[in-house]
Amino acid sequence: MQGVGFRWFVEKTAVSIGVRGWVRNEDDGRVHVYAVGTPDQLNELAGHIHKGPRMAEVRGVEEQEAAMQQLNSFHSE
What we know:
This protein is α+β, with helices and mostly antiparallel strands. It has a single domain (6-76), classed as Alpha-Beta Plaits (2-Layer Sandwich). 32% of the residues lie in helices and 19% in strands. The chain has helices at residues 6-17, 39-51; strands spanning 20-25, 31-36, 74-76. A hairpin with a 5-residue loop joins strand 1 and strand 2. Helix 1 (6-17) packs antiparallel against helix 2. The longest helix is centred in the middle third of the chain and has 13 residues, at 39-51. It is globular and about 30 Å long.
C-alpha cells in the first residue's frame, strides 16, 4: 500500500514501540517490514500494521519468521 504514508506510519510506530528493523516499498505496491523485538512488541506492531494509517486500506498482512539481523534502530529503506 503506497501513497498513504504507510512506510512513515510503520517507521514511526516501530520506533515508539522500541522495535528495531526496516520498512521499504516494493515495486508491486506491497510494503515489506522486517522487525526485531520482544514477542509483545512484535504483536503490538503487527496490530498497528493490520489497521494501518487513517487513509490506508490494508488488504492483507503476511507474517513469517526470518533470520535475525543485527540492527540498532528502525529505518526506512
